[in-house]
Design a protein that fits this description.
By secondary structure, the protein is of the alpha/beta class. The protein contains 2 helices and 8 strands; from the N terminus they run E-H-E-E-E-E-H-E-E-E. It comes from Streptomyces pharetrae CZA14.
Length: 117
């Protein structure tokens, strides 16, 4: 296959601030520290990355695409992300085994339960 997944693009009011938040949350490396297009990756030479780009409009509705993460310890990871500035989000999920959080600009993501739980 000739297609390589390069990155996920995230619209942001403040790309650098949101990109730095995600870099801390994921433990990733900043590869482009630009105020308009801020990029992070798992390592400088690893793909895919997250590219945060400035847009003029605010987020208005639930994301049509979101990221899911599976930690070793769901409760500890949720607590850590909340400590970094994430918040709980209600997208109509009801009682589930995963936890829906939102980043500082309101982008939803899920923290799944561990495989051992």
């Amino acid at each position: 296959m000739s297609l390589v997944w390069e990155q996920v693009v995230v619209d942001a009011a403040d790309p650098a601030a949101l990109g730095r938040w995600w870099a801390r949350a994921l433990g990733w490396t900043v590869v482009n520290d630009d105020a308009e297009e801020f990029e992070i990756r798992p390592a400088p030479d690893r793909l895919p990355g997250l590219l945060f780009i400035r847009v003029p409009e605010d987020k208005a509705v639930k994301n049509r695409l979101h990221l899911d993460f599976r930690p070793a310890d769901q409760r500890a990871e949720v607590d850590r992300l909340l400590g970094l500035g994430a918040r709980h989000a209600d997208v109509g999920q009801g009682e589930q085994t995963w936890v829906v959080l939102a980043d500082p600009e309101g982008n939803e993501f899920c923290v799944l339960r561990s495989h051992t739980a």
